[in-house]
Amino acid sequence: MHLPLLLKDLAIILGLAGVISLVFRRLGQPVVLGYILVGILAGPHVPWIPTVTDTPNIQILAELGIVFLLFSLGLEFSFPRLLQTGFASATIALIEVAIMGMIGIFCGKALGWSTMDSVFLGGILAISSTTMIIKAFDELKLKSQRFAQTVFGVLIVEDLVAILILAALSTIAITREIQGFTLLAALGKLTLILPVVIVSGIYFIPRILKMSRRWLDAEALLIFSLGICLGLVLLSDWLGYSAALGAFLAGAILAESPEGKKIEHLIEPVRNLFGAIFFVSVGMLFNLSVLADNYWVVLIVTLVTIIGKTIATGLGALIAGRSSEESVQVGFSMAQVGEFSFIIASLGASLGVTSEFLYPLAVSVAVVTSFTTPYMIRGSTGAARALKGVTPLSLQELLSRYELALQRVRVSPQKSGLRARLSELKDLVYRALRAEPLPFRELAPWNAHLDAFSIEPGSTLSGKTLREVNVRGLTGANVLVINRTGSSIIAPDPDRILLPSDQLVALGSDQQTQALRLLAESPMTSAQDTVSNPEYVLEAALIREGSYLDGRTIRDASVRETLGGLVVGIERGGIRITNPESNTELKHGDIIWVVCPLGSREAVARIASSPP
Fold first, then answer.
1. How far apart (Å, rounded) are the C-alpha atoms in residues 117 and 348?
2. Counts of helices then strands in the chain (DSSP H, E)
3. Which of 184, 228, 335, 507 is the most exposed place for a label (fewest CB within 10 A)?
4. Are 225 and 48 in contact (CB under 8 A)?
5. To 10 degrees, the CA torsion angle through 132, 134, 138, 139?
6. What is the pTM of this model?
């Protein structure tokens, strides 16, 4: 029996990928790099290993890989979650993308490249790697730290911006020239079409799924979802946009349905299979001879990527009101390119508008920066401290006042509307910069956040009391809630015995909560044992004149009894009061920080602004 060449090629690809993936997992390296290596070995540029012969059909399967990767990304996307990322994440992402896009274009021009190559290089450098960053945070056990949460918010916005970049580059590639009016018209049409597709999809598709629930088993749900995905891919192509845009929209729409999580689980093996083929195809187009002839260009672009993205993202974080230390950590974490860079580079190569060297260049830079990412993240804290040590005190005070001004606007503006927010921001920044200097320690940014984790058997805390271990004295963190067998113990007594499997909700800086984690967890604990979504949150509210809280003490306000929460901090006149006594009187103009159940967030703002 004569087998089609495609089956032989798939046998080569999947056989090598299976072996290499096991090796890379054993070495603790990203498996995606293994798939790229398989493509290099199975491609036409390495002659002494069995070579893929039916390249056109493999490229078709790779296109499906892009579709299912973007479809899966859309399933993980959430429009409400995007809104919750707020001002800071959007600001950081847009500043980084804009700066790196311009740096890429200028770099290409400086190297003597064509305008089209330079524009695509800007797109390649603009987007960081979600896959690489999340894996690095997992391995380093940093996902619960505050700067990591900021990075996750930025990545959500970046993923959406990447879709727009793909749409814009598709328009540029088709017209073969960069015309401002044409590009604006295409993006304008996209702006008009997107809301219609999204709203109609969110309105109709969940209702269809709900009406058909009794007949929808796993097989039918998978087929229905893939049909929706490919249908929107065809619609996107018909409208003149990339297939990736339609796939992403399909995933985002289905993510809003009650079956979203189930669909995400069902699509995972399909995504893994075709995603592996896509990354193998990336390696197949990797020409080592082209790389050898342009090694110095790879070095230049790699340095531009690491240095440029570190500075651009860190600057964006500072402008968004993050502390200098957190800004450095965010910048160091996002200094790489990844999967979207492959997709952007492959778009230019498939349409024949970019030079032969650009694709292997993008792959080379992605490979190098994927190896440097864990080391950059690990060294970010030390770099932040070193930078702070050489920063003049006056500049530190200036940045702290600026952060405080943005924080006040975020908590509770006096009026609603964009103009009111901008006006109040300008006024607060002006008053903050003109205020009399105060000791820097009193102006230190409110960098405390909530963290939650389990007490492991055999750990330092297991079977002991908070007082016996002196938790607050050793770590500086405050244990606010103990979750035990379905119930919550708020403001636990220092003499209460901690039991194995208790879940602690603590308040502190990254360093303080990390120190407490070391006490609570045994050496064998993995990052998967941590609680990533604690049911308690840290909420801030501005007390209005004449409100329920104005003029009352913390004890009289009965915050603990009415909201199940604790007042853990007060900001008054630029001074932070941490762990205030229960007889502390609250005044209008104070910003109070309350640890409360997730469902009580709106109630905190309500009692701070509503009359008795």
1. 8
2. 25, 8
3. 184
4. no
5. 10
6. 0.62
